[in-house]
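Narrative of activities, Objective 1.

The group set out to show that a structural description can be obtained from nothing but a protein's sequence at a throughput compatible with the screening campaign. Below is one input-output pair from the validation batch, recorded exactly as produced.
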Amino acid sequence: MATLTLAELAKITGGTLHGDNHAEVTMVAPMDKATQGHVTFLSNPKYAKHLASCQATVVMVKEAQKSLFDGNVLVVDDPYVAFARVAQALDTTPAPAQGIAPSAVIADDASLGINVSVGANSVIESGVVLGDNVIIGANCFVGKNASLGSNSKLWANVSIYHDVVIGEDCLVQSGTVIGSDGFGYANERGEWIKIPQLGSVRIGNRVEIGACTSIDRGALDDTIIEDNVILDNQMQIAHNVHIGYGTAMAGGTIVAGSTRIGKYCIIGGASVINGHIEIADGVTITGMGMVMRSIEEKGVYSSGIPLQPNKEWRKTATRVHRIDEMNKRLKAVEKQLEQKTES
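Output recorded for this entry:
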């Protein structure tokens, strides 16, 4: 169990402590469940009313809320960011592997940096380069000439195909496949002819990829994911997609081939993005968005229909099916009004 003093918390968060420097915490907890030894935070002002009864050893708040808690208070610029940093410092998640397992299969010409770990039954093929402190979990496959930068981690059952390049400080969760063939075929009189996918996947630094996500290799050029991108679980990133710096994409999202997504975009869960389009920097697409055309301006975009009681939804669906008929009737009425005005 990790333990930190409040003085150490202040250093980690860059905050100002009002209280006992020597008091200790061992974990982060929700405000309503926190007790002695816990650190909690207030990021949403609507929960400020609970501060008076909070039992945490210390609460991280903004300057305006410091007087609402009688105990130890750590004043920070952004309590949610502070929570993230403290949670990292107190994290006790075990490593995906420790040392080189006897059952691991590592090619003689693979290059392993300092302090590399490879879990049970994992396969590291010829020409692979693993940087310092790389951790490969159990049952992983790293294909020929692939590379992982320093401090990157693969959890169990990850498959990295040949020639894939993954940068430093990346994290890939279990079941993900990177570098599989893109969906490329030509059709000759009803018969499908496979197009070999000759590109690869290049992933930048500090990228995190969720469980059971698929990222296809490029057809000719590479599929590219820039630095500081976070991808959720069960996503499909097709061949030759380019995802810009700092973009975040939630679970179940599907991106078709050759689409370019800008920097600092936020894509809501279960969104579907058409191929061969571009999305500008700073675009937010809310959940279940269906993006059929390029988005040229920063902003928030939505298309999913919110849930309704079934009876109301049926009425809405009926009206949508009749929209063409209603449009014709409206135009006819407008034409009659114009004729009356002219006469």
